[in-house]
């Protein structure tokens, strides 16, 4: 195990210390420039593509459902705990660098999701399927590389990250469940057997979450989309509302907090809101937190983007939708966490960080109700991440030819990992997931850069039609150079 851990740590150091920390930013800047700063120039188009009704198609889900499923995966416990850690280690300037990563990441998200739409096909169940594995296999003609990508995605998003999310839920709810188990005489009182009672409570939570997850994921992606469409807007809306209330209650301090974030990012102001951090610490922690949170370039969200029926009927439409997902995740939700912490009279420290820091901040704003709210938010953020992550892995299973049997096996494995993750310390296996995600992200970044000419061609087609007042409708026959690998029936 020591040798295995050493190899995993080396891989993570390579991926996250060198390749991805610079690669994701470089690719984001590349697409920002090549596509004419599309995330800024056409920001309104993102909202139009989400709200357009379009033509219904039973083979896919709606643009809004695709957005909410991707947000279900993106908006997880990292938006609560991860932002607090970034503030503790990097200071308020880390938030500025999170913003910068998100703004360039929107262009990357646009590119990968546009490709996912373009190269989608009908799966064995008739539903649209696709994602990075599809454009790697058919766009680049590298099915072997697509298979490696799919395996890495299943291991990280399908299995291990779901164990981590279940662990977050169990950690947040274990104490009250333990008290109930003792009260009902189901476990021994805490008289030297505290660990046993605590673990029993976490196992109960894991089983409950697994059963609830199973009810949803056994309904397939359409069922996941319906749940996400209902839960995610409420979940994110209430969280943003809490941040707005905190802003209003402390409105006189807001200008100082915002200016402090910017100044601290460049070392012009060392402290603000009780947090301190150097320029390098602010940049590195903000960039890493931003990359982990919005997932732009990771190759995850394109898996659900491919399942959508776009409105208008054009690959770029889903590119705009998923670019908006990056904006909502980081610029809105992560910023909400940061602002609530910075406006609170709490002092980040080695002891008070992560979820505890966010709970303390909301406790300062809203009293005991605030701490309860954080616990509830953790449950919904983590639970929706489980079902969102599963939807990505299901696409990968279909690409590998798993069929109905493979999908059922994946669903059972996800439920088992939820129970296991709730009761175990998942540090080592989480490191393995980071390495696996680093591999898939590296493969995906190479693929979308090699296919960037296709992205540019499709984007020009969309924008040219919008410019003359025409509803964008993509016809592959107009672009024979990119026809190989594209399903002509879908885009005829």
Summarize the structure.
Keywords: Cell inner membrane, Cell membrane, Membrane, Symport, Transmembrane, Transmembrane helix, Transport. The protein has 492 residues and is mostly helical.
Give an account of the 3D structure.
With 492 residues, the chain is an all-alpha fold. It has one domain (8-482): Amino acid/polyamine transporter I (Up-down Bundle), CATH 1.20.1740. 74% of the residues lie in helices and 2% in strands. Strands 1-2 form a two-stranded antiparallel ribbon. Strands 3-4 form a two-stranded antiparallel sheet. The longest helix has 41 residues, at 143-183. The chain is globular, with a radius of gyration of 22 Å. Mean pLDDT is 85; it is low at 272-276. One of its GO terms (cellular component) is plasma membrane. This is Alanine or glycine:cation symporter, AGCS family. The chain crosses the membrane at residues 15-37, 71-90, 140-161, 195-218, 230-251, 323-344, 372-393, 405-423, 435-458. One of its GO terms (molecular function) is amino acid:sodium symporter activity.
Percent in helix: over 70%
Helices, by number, come to: 19
Alpha-carbon Rg, integer:
22 Å
Q: Distance between termini?
A: 53 Å
SS elements, strand count? 4
CATH superfamily: Amino acid/polyamine transporter I
What are the secondary-structure elements, in order, as H or E?
Answer: HHHHHHEEHHHHHEEHHHHHHHH
Q: How many structurally independent domains?
A: 1
Strand order of the largest sheet: 1-2
pLDDT under 50 segments (min length 5)? 272-276
**CATH-defined topology:** Amino acid/polyamine transporter I
Structural class: mainly alpha
CATH class bucket:
Mainly Alpha
Biggest sheet details: 2 strands, antiparallel
The CATH level-2 architecture is identified as Up-down Bundle
**Average pLDDT level:** 85
Transmembrane segments: 15-37, 71-90, 140-161, 195-218, 230-251, 323-344, 372-393, 405-423, 435-458
GO molecular function, one term: amino acid:sodium symporter activity
Pfam families: Na_Ala_symp
Subcellular location: Cell inner membrane; Cell membrane
């Amino acid at each position: 195990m020591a040798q295995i851990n050493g190899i995993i740590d080396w891989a993570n150091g390579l991926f996250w210390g060198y390749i991805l920390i610079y690669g994701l930013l470089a690719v984001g800047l590349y697409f920002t420039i090549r596509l004419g700063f599309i995330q800024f120039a056409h920001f309104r188009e993102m909202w139009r593509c989400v709200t357009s009704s379009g033509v219904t198609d039973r083979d896919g889900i709606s643009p809004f459902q695709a957005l909410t499923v991707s947000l279900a995966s993106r908006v997880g416990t990292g938006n609560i705990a991860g932002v607090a850690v970034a503030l503790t280690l990097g200071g308020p300037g880390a938030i500025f660098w999170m913003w910068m990563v998100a703004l360039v990441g929107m262009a990357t998200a646009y590119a990968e999701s546009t490709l996912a739409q373009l190269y989608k096909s009908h799966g064995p169940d008739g539903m649209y399927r696709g994602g990075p594995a599809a454009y790697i296999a058919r766009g680049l003609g590298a099915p072997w590389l697509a298979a490696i990508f799919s395996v890495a995605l299943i291991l990280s998003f399908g299995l291990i990250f779901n164990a981590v999310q279940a662990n977050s839920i169990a950690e947040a709810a274990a104490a009250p469940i333990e008290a109930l188990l003792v009260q009902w005489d189901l476990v021994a009182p805490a008289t030297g057997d505290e660990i046993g009672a605590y673990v029993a409570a976490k196992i109960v939570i894991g089983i409950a979450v697994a059963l609830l997850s199973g009810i949803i994921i056994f309904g397939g992606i359409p069922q996941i989309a319906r749940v996400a469409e209902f839960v995610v807007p409420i979940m994110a809306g209430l969280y943003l509302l809490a941040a707005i209330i905190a802003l209003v209650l402390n409105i006189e301090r807001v200008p100082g907090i915002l200016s402090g974030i910017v100044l601290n990012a460049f070392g012009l102001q060392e402290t603000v809101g009780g947090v301190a951090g150097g320029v390098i610490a602010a940049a590195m922690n903000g960039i890493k937190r931003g990359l982990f949170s919005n997932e732009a370039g990771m190759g995850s969200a394109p898996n659900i983007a491919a399942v959508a029926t776009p409105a208008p009927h054009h690959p770029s439409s889903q590119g705009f939708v998923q670019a908006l997902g990056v904006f909502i995740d980081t610029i809105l939700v992560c910023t909400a966490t940061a602002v609530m912490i910075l406006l609170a009279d709490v002092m980040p420290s080695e002891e008070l960080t992560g979820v505890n820091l966010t709970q303390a901040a909301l406790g300062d704003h809203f009293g005991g109700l605030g701490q309860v709210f954080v616990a509830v938010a953790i449950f919904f953020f983590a639970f929706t991440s489980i079902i969102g992550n599963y939807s990505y892995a299901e696409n990968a299973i279909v690409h590998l030819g798993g069929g109905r049997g493979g999908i059922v096996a994946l669903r059972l494995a996800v439920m088992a990992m939820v129970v296991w993750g709730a009761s175990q310390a998942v540090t080592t296996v989480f490191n393995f997931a980071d390495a696996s995600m680093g591999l898939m992200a590296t493969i995906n970044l190479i693929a979308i850069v090699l296919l960037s000419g296709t992205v540019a061609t499709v984007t020009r087609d969309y924008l040219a039609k919008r410019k003359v007042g025409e509803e964008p409708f993509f016809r592959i026959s107009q672009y024979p150079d990119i026809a190989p690998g594209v399903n002509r029936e879908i885009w005829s």
